[in-house]
Amino acid sequence: MAVLAQKKPKTIFEKFNDETWRRKFLRNVLIPWIFIAPLLIIHIFVVAIPAVQGVYMSMTDWGGINPNVEFIGLENYQKLLFEDQGSSKAISNNVVWMIFFLTVPFIMALFCATQLAQIKRGGMLYRSILFIPYVMASVVVTTIWKNLLNPKQGILAATARAVGIQDFEVAFLGRTDTALLSIAFIDNWHFWGFLMILFLAAMQAIPPVLYDAAKIDGANRWQEFRHVTLPGIRPIVLFMFMMVAIWSFLAFDYIWLTTQGGPGGASEVIATQLYKNAFQRFEAGYAAAQGVFISIFAGFIIMIFVILKRRGWDI
């Protein structure tokens, strides 16, 4: 029996002498890297290098202006997690904010998307009306709602007085027990239409034959939603759960434009405290540690979803 000699692999020099290999290398390797190189360079200088610098600055005592930088190790993180009562309150407010936005807007968006999915005529008009708040600038939205919630001259208080309700003159943004949730309500008014549009688009991609089969099996509206609609839109729902959880720790604009973290720190979150530490108290090193903490939290959330995806979840 003849023994076939193994084919000796080509060296790198022999490959370069092969015109077919050179063309494949040029088309599949070199040209893609040439096109992606500008974006990669920009990413390195705009994202990667500042991120590394931020991690280093989080371990220093730096005021943000003076050139003197003193390396102090993990003292900023120790202060953030165990010593600074203001940071502990801000983190707890972020958790409350996250719980609110992982429940209220999702319930509203799912309910409204389910109803709009059945509308054949005029559906685009309703979607546009509900989506308009999302494209409005945060400054405009907060100005509108600050006027609406004004306890003396606001429309809501005036309407309540007109119908005989005398105890509605409450400064919702000026009370420690209502400030945070009032701002969350304002932000949700702007945000939930975005979720509704995403869920509605996912629902419209579900094959109608699945609903027909459910009706033949005698399923009611709730059973159709539970066994057909939810499994069909589960990937987008879980993805938005991840994104909203991350965004909850980045909340800044609506809080800053309404109360700036007040009254008495009742609506303070990590982002507003970070801004104050960096630009008002000139504790840039400590502010950098707070920024790194937010990034670690975001990485933790992403890691959870990566683990779930590896375990077979449809995300």
Q: What is the compact description of this entry?
A:
The protein is mostly helical and 315 residues long. The protein has helices at residues 12-17, 19-57, 75-83, 85-101, 104-116, 123-135, 138-148, 155-162, 179-204, 208-216, 221-248, 253-258, 270-279, 284-310, and strands at 60-61, 70-71.
Can you describe what's shown?
This protein is an all-alpha fold. It has 14 helices and two strands. The radius of gyration is 27 Å and the shape is flat. It has a two-stranded antiparallel ribbon. A hairpin with an 8-residue loop joins β1 and β2. Helices cover about 70% and strands about 0% of the residues.
Order of helices and strands: HHEEHHHHHHHHHHHH
Based on DSSP secondary structure assignment, what is the total number of beta strands?
Answer: 2
Tell me the β content.
under 5%
Shape summary: flat
Helix/strand-derived category reads mainly alpha
Distance between the amino and carboxyl termini:
55 Å
Number of helices: 14
Q: What's the alpha carbon Rg, rounded to whole Å?
A: 27 Å
Low-confidence stretches: 1-5
Output the keywords.
disordered N terminus; single chain; mainly alpha; two-stranded antiparallel sheet; 70% helix; 315 residues
Could you give the topology of this structure?
Elements: H1 12-17, H2 19-57, E1 60-61, E2 70-71, H3 75-83, H4 85-101, H5 104-116, H6 123-135, H7 138-148, H8 155-162, H9 179-204, H10 208-216, H11 221-248, H12 253-258, H13 270-279, H14 284-310
Antiparallel strand pairs: 1-2
